[in-house]
Design a protein that fits this description.
Layout (H helix, E strand, L loop, with lengths): L1 E10 L5 E6 L2 H10 L12 E3 L1 H11 L8 E10 L1 H4 L2
C-alpha cells in the first residue's frame, strides 16, 4: 500500500468537495509539518488546516487557493497497486 496526500478544498457553505492538489513526494515533508502531521502517523485521517496553514501549504505547492470560500484539508489516499507500477 502506498499512501499519497492531497490538499483538498471544500466549499464552506455546502461542504462539497471543490478541488484538490496532489502533494508531490519532494514537498510532502514540508506540508506534513505545516499540517502538524506526526511522523508516526499512518495516513488514517484527514487533517483540517486553518487559513494560515492552508496559505502556507499552497505556497509550498505553488498553487492558488481561496480561503474565503473554501476550507482546506490534507487528506491521505491509498494509491491502487496498478498505479504503483506506472
Amino acid at each position: 500500500m502506498t499512501i499519497v496526500y492531497r490538499l483538498v478544498g471544500y466549499d464552506k457553505a455546502t461542504e462539497r468537495k471543490h478541488g484538490e492538489f496532489a502533494i508531490p513526494e519532494e514537498r510532502l515533508a514540508a506540508v506534513r509539518e505545516i499540517a502538524r502531521i506526526l511522523p508516526a502517523d499512518d495516513g488514517l485521517g484527514d487533517y483540517p488546516l486553518d487559513d494560515e496553514q492552508a496559505r502556507t501549504a499552497a505556497r509550498v505547492l505553488n498553487v492558488t487557493i481561496d480561503c474565503a470560500r473554501l476550507a482546506y484539508y490534507v487528506e491521505p489516499y491509498d494509491m491502487p497497486a496498478a498505479k504503483n507500477r506506472a
